[in-house]
Amino acid sequence: MKYVGIHTQQAENNARSVLLLFLFPCLIVALVYAFCYGMIYMNTPDGGVHPSEPSVTVQANAMFIEAVPVALLVVGIWFVIAYFANTSIINAATSSHSLSRMENKRIYNLVENLCMSVGMPMPKLQIIEDNSLNAFASGINRRTFTVTLSRGIIDKLNDEELQGVIAHELTHIRNRDVRLMIVSIVFVGIFSMIAEIALRSVFYTPRRRDEKGGGGVVILLAFVLAIVGFFFASLMRFAISRKREYMADAGAAEMTKNPRALASALRKISGDPDIEAVTRDDVAQLFIEHPGKQAQGIFGGLQGLFATHPPIAKRIAVLEQF
User: Fold this and answer.
1) pLDDT, tens digit, 9 for 90 and up, residues 177-190
2) So what's the pLDDT on residue 122?
């Protein structure tokens, strides 16, 4: 794999974050317009209008002009709250809590030594009380950067293996992968909720039983939402590239000078990565190995196409070639 420097990786992830921040409002605007047009069309008998009344397009445009500022304001407030409350959201989704120095000096010593070796501030440390083996990094700035480890990974890995895992997570922080992941988690959450609200509104809005084309428009709106969802999922796959895991593995190997220790750790993790508390697929993407228990959804059968982690066997093979 071609080497990519830390500053280049940071710049690429920052650019992807900006791209997401720009494209997501565009998706929201398109969704609002499609919804407005569909609602006007559905409530127009036989899909037509009286000559004295404005056309469906004109009515939809008027409805859209009134609705889009409200929608963008609500989504904007929602994003800001979710973005800055991400630590609490992730802690709740993973049932993690703070790991005190007195509770485990071993972990603090490993993290401090690695941070000093690369000149980075020490992140917060969290623990998930689960005997499975997994870990992840999160946060949006120095104040919130966090490395979270499961009880199982602490107890079942030796110091060299655990050092490799921690170095992997620290590399995600240094590369700004975690910030990109937080942005994606917030956006996916917002889109999922909007899609559900829109679909419920379409299906439960009263309309005449003899209205022709009404059912077809409902299907059309649902189809538009599905297409937007598919596009956004593809965008997430582009933004959250599998390459980030290879880059974090390479960064850990460079930091520890011991790639085989991380390879050994990944081999042990692959045997039992499932964290029982994690049921949200967006949060599961944060982990060093995607927990096997994944959220169910309309695209559940296509999870392999949108996997954000490369096969762990390939990661181990790459590390063992160092």
Assistant:
1) 888 778 777 777 77
2) 95
Q: Higher confidence at residue 68 or residue 264? A: 264
In degrees and rounded to multiples of 5, residue 88 shows phi and psi of: -65, -40
Task: Determine contact, residues 171/248, Cβ cutoff 8 Å.
Answer: yes
Residue 112 included in any domain: yes
What DSSP string runs through 69-103? HHHHHHHHHHHHHHHHTHHHHHHHHHTEEE--TTT
Residues 83 and 148 both lie in one domain? no
Look up the domain containing 210 and give its range: 6-88+179-239
Q: In what order do the strands lie in the sheet with 135-138?
A: 96-98, 124-128, 146-150, 135-138
Q: Is the same domain home to 164 and 254?
A: yes
DSSP string for 262-297: HHHHHHHHHHS---TT---HHHHTTBSS--S-----
Please indicate, yes or no, if residue 30 is contained in any of the structural domains: yes
How crowded is residue 57: how many other Cβ atoms within 10 Å of its Cβ? 12
Catalytic positions, written as ranges: 169
